[in-house]
Amino acid sequence: MSKKSWFSNLKCRECGRLYEKEAIHICEFDFGPLEAAYDYDAIRKVLTRKLIESRPQTMWRYRELLPIDGEPTVGTQVGFTPLVKADRLAKALGIRELWIKNDSVNYPTLSFKDRVVSVALSRARELGFKVVACASTGNLANSVAANAANAGLKSYVLIPSNLEQGKVLGSLVYGTNVIGIRGPYDQVNRLCSEIAGKYGWGFVNVNLRPYYAEGSKTMGFEIAEQLGWQLPRHTVVCMASGSLLTKIHKSYKEFIDLGIVEKSNFTIHGAQASGCSPISTAFKHGTDIVKPVQNPDTIAKSLAIGTPADGYYAIRSMRETGGSSEDCTDEEIVEGIKLLAETTGIFAETAGGVTVACARKLIATGKIPKNESAVLCITGHGLKTQEALAGKVGEPRVIGPSLREFEALVADEVALKS
Amino acid sequence: MPTIRIPTPLRKLTNNQEEVVASGATLGAILEELNATYPGLGERILDEQGTIRRFVNIFVNDEDVRFLQEKETPVKEADVVSIVPAIAGG
Fold first, then answer.
1. Does residue A17 belong to the interface with chain B, where contact is any CB pair within 8 Å?
2. Which of A48, A306, A69 is nearest to A211 (CA)?
């Protein structure tokens, strides 16, 4: 007798056709993306705040809403990152209340990707895969490499060959096979679709995508729980493929539907870099047809996806919740990183700078009203994109080991002990 | 006549041919003729409202018809029409 599983099928997001829970990601009928489907009636009977609170502080406390059959075997300690109240940043941005959901310190690889990889690799194990892989703009590669190493799985990570050194080293060190592709991310992704078909590997964001994507919901679940079991009025989420934004939306809806939080108005906004903003551009033009960006050009390389798989759904989520989409220049990204660091002590990668810069614009234009409250989702750590700050944060002032030199240096800045 | 490229998942509907021909002055006319010749092909490409399905891309000579005139896009004798399931990533 098999154990009860809360996760019943895969389902086409377009036509609703149901499929078995295998390593498939595209509907045979209309090529729509497949999504995990749950037995919410059964879940409603067991999942309560009390049950969640009784579990360890990891993403797996929301176990019933994640698409694996058994218990997780990879990434069991991922998640439950800090939700930080950011009063000084709120003041700087001109908003009443601001929180930072800080996945820059997520375990083990300092980005939100550990959430999606934990689910994907746990499921890959259930499905019997021996080799796992991904197409990545950096953070996903780090996470697959690290979690595969921990799980004893062989892995291949395919990246554009021009990524930041921290992200390249941060994959190589785990002993994974890093393949650099001379081309933008879209070409890496297309190649991975071809490889997945031919080699039978578990590509976390291709043939395992329906499982992978669900991991992002835990960022939203945690925000709600950490705010005291309520939804934030506004959430700002950066967009590469758009998947994270759509899954945070799904997480809020699931919590309402299951009665875990009370129904309340919530709005979700998207943030992109101007050098690659296909979703934001479509949104601002009032259309949901996303025009691919052939040659992304931005320091936010983690967001440089010219053909976002979930662009249409991200636009729909923003429209349904009354949200807006913004984008920002490379200069604004750097300012965003610095402002976040200087006011909250959180060092985010370029994608985090995008989120802060776009939040600033959303507040300034009234899309996020000044007297309301917002959560900014910070998705990765700044040590991984140091190149973006080169020459932009000044240099140390260097002196000899002399008190006199030091006194001369700081004479105008500080008073002596009296 | 214009050449129509059929993606792998739909070839079982076109007797396993990866390229077929069809006549029509616009993409819409061509799709109608294709459906008449290969029954069942039409509903894989167009939804009940007759709109091109969201995850099906159609190119006329490498240009996405969504940025031209959709089904009204004119098609000339020597043009190549490619039907491609959307594969996007991230």
1. no
2. A69
